Amino acid sequence: MNPFKFIAKRPFTTFLVTVGLLSGAVFALNKMRAESYPEGQTPKIYVFLDHANEYALKAKAYITSQLESESHEEGEKAHTEPHKIVVTSPKSKDVTTTQEYVCQIRSQRHIDVCALESGFLEKVLVKEGQTVKKGDLLFTILPVLYQARLDAEVAEANLAQLEYNNTVRLHEQNVVSQNEVQLLGAKLAKAKAKAELARAEMNFTNVVAAFDGIVDRLKEREGSLIKEGDILTTLSDNSTMWVYFNVPEADYLEYMAHQKDGRQSQQIELVLANHETFPQSGAIGAIEAKFNNETGNIPFRADFSNPDRLLRHGQTGKVRIHRVMKDSLVLPQRAVFEVLDKRYVFVVDKDDVAHQREVGIDFEMDDIFVLKKGLKADEKVVLEGILQVKDGEKVTAHHEYEPVEKVLAHLKNKAE
After folding, report:
1. Which of 55, 299, 338, 371 could form a disulfide with 329, with the two C-beta atoms 3.0–4.6 Å apart?
2. May I ask the CATH class of domain 85-93+328-409?
3. Angle (nearest 5°) at CA 406 between 404 and 412
């Protein structure tokens, strides 16, 4: 206890303490001096000292009892003084929740550009990072061999055409039979097919863009010996980007449940490596068919339009999904307490009797819980002073009601 506070409240007691200390000092001084008195006078001195000592002991006992009584009274008063009990109500409102996932950014179309025939790379007609249109010529492979083969097959087709025309004329003069005409007709068709094949092989030496896109790194240079199937470069269509991220099973089930009941609208943002938000909003484009048994996650895909071609294949970032949960019931976390991994509140009825009730939590935010079940908007719950409330007992007369709007406006602490 603070001594100055005690002195201010108990001046008489303080006076008695001072007297007792002085008496003790007198007793000690007389005790030292008694030894120097003549022998005949010492009995009187000792009788006086005995009386002084007895008075000092009584004063000490009284002062001690007064101090103990004062300390006990103030401690009991502090112990029995009740704390204020504050009661509030849950509130129905639209709540925006945010979930964040690490993601990988991929082009909508990203292909390898390969050589269809073997030969020497004659020309490279594009640069790395160049934007091309569908059908643009990218590479040419030395066509000498294919040109010679095409010329030979065309010559064979022309010869077969002459033979066929001559046979038809002889047939008209009844020199050869119809079977001979048909035989040469089949030979002509075969020669033409071989010529078309040679022409197609010749065309394979010209490598063109399959769609509008951006050329990646060049794998080969002019003069390189190319084999059939060798990768020359890659081509990316970045008009729309596919953003992949892994979602835990619990979040997946929550997402599907909210999609089914239609209680929420969502907005998907993409945060880039420089912590800037991509200006275009995304939409869930696909959910894969199975979970990863090792991680317990399922891949989601969000589609983002990329008109300025800012995003490139292979980037990383974070996907933020903002969901607006309409008409959700929210409650300050301070009103909720846990018992054996279950969460409860004290509901105060119209007779001011408190009842312990279990509540279900749909989502947890900084200072509030979004309730799934257990409460209604018009019910009252204990917000502060939970430790003084018991199930089935009446709430003391010291409680007061605080509007939930005021509580939500000043939330800083989490639940007890």
Report:
1. 371
2. mainly beta
3. 100
